[in-house]
Amino acid sequence: xxxxxxxxxxxxxxxxxxxxxxxxxxxxxxxxxxxxxxxxxxxxxxxxxxxxxxxxxxxxxxxxxxxxxxxxxxxxxxxxxxxxxxxxxxxxxxxxxxxxxxxxxxxxxxxxxxxxxxxxxxxxxxxxxxxxxxxxxxxxxxxxxxxxxxxxxxxxxxxxxxxxxxxxxxxxxxxxxxxxxxxxxxxxxxxxxxxxxxxxxxxxxxxxxxxxxxxxxxxxxxxxxxxxxxxxxxxxxxxxxxxxxxxxxxxxxxxxxxxxxxxxxxxxxxxxxxxxxxxxxxxxxxxxxxxxxxxxxxxxxxxxxxxxxxxxxxxxxxxxxxxxxxxxxxxxxxxxxxxxxxxxxxxxxxxxxxx
Length: 355
What we know:
Structural class: alpha+beta
């Protein structure tokens, strides 16, 4: 009879654990919300047409001929926007006005413009309200203002401009054959010389107006210390009021009386006004001298009065042409009628003699 092998209790427990492993909870359980999902296939349009390339610069800060963070660049942008949105502008030459004098002049100008607006609103034909805050008197940098004026007058940013380059059809970002690394894709490379850039500070605009430095009729006035008075609309009534304050001249543009406006005759205000000299005006793209500016301000009734005068002139010319034509026809009729009567009398005399 064989003898049994004796196994110790410790070895038996070890063998039992290896043959029957115990269940242990997972340290990092996976829930259904975090389980990996199957990614759907992209649409057919996305596989056929490639996505347009991303611009390498923000749309509010495109590449410019000069760095846009400089003060000169910001003034150029400001003057360009001002010229494009201002139909009426007066130019003044100022000679070392103090801060207190500027404050006094602006105060009297704003007060007079507000009174003119109130009087126009109370009339029979109220004009479109023009708040005094929108009529501003400010100092400008003459050279930067001249450069902005050339860009506004001689640079056309539309695609039909002959001096502006257009991208070729092969560089269309939506074309599948176009590579995303092509250098002539519009708005992709941060290159200031890109012809697709058409803003006022672009190098294309700079080259287009570089040869026209002295061709604008307003250029001779843009020298020395200058200040401009801008109007949002062409209003002869407000222009007359401004000229009466800044450049008075009797009898058409008299200065306000001391009893009506004592602040206008203050020594500080008068000292500032004596240092302002009216040079001319820029009205609807046309340049006027001092006499032309006063003529615009002296139009009775504003633009409506000017239209009435034009209609009256056209009616007078039409009436004169009608009278002239009627006179020629009437004279011809009298001549033919007289000749007919003479012939009838001669025929009557001939019949009587034959009888």
